[in-house]
What we know:
The chain is 74% helix and 0% strand. By secondary structure, it is mostly helical.
Amino acid sequence: MVRLAKFNENHFIDSAITVAAQCGVAAVSMSAIAVKAGAPIGSVYHRFDSRNAILARAWLRVKSDFREEVASLWGEGDTWAGVHGLLDWCRRKPVYARFLLQCEDSPDFNGGLDEELQAALEQEQAALDACFSRCATTGLDHLVLKFMLIDAPVAVVKPYLTQDRAIPASVDAMLRASHDAVRGWAAHTTH
Length: 191
């Protein structure tokens, strides 16, 4: 009789994401992942050869999800849709949002990744950059665009996410006012 695996790669990737979201990237270890998954540590090592490998896979999963659900909206040129998409994503997937906050730009893998995983990380970043570049065709300065799409929304939702509190509906109106003001200012200064 074939014995089915009780734990698969997805269990461990989910556990790594949760540990990082709750305790920071530094807390992600093979042992912490095993404890969070309720699995023997040998099961984690059976599927992943290192902490870096599982953390990179977690990073890819969350970053890809963000790109597909949020950054894809940037390409349409409607900057408010991009901001609203970010708010919606943070509300629906707060663990993913906290994971990104904990990782900042990217976890430090100290060069400890195989070529295939490193290439996948670079490809995902290039896809995200392409989404931003498509939105940049709106004529807005890149710094202004980054502020509207990422910096301002993240600054506003961060306190709620880090304190594991729901993002109130009033945040939408605050960010809409900020978005419209910056967009209006940018239009005025470029003419």
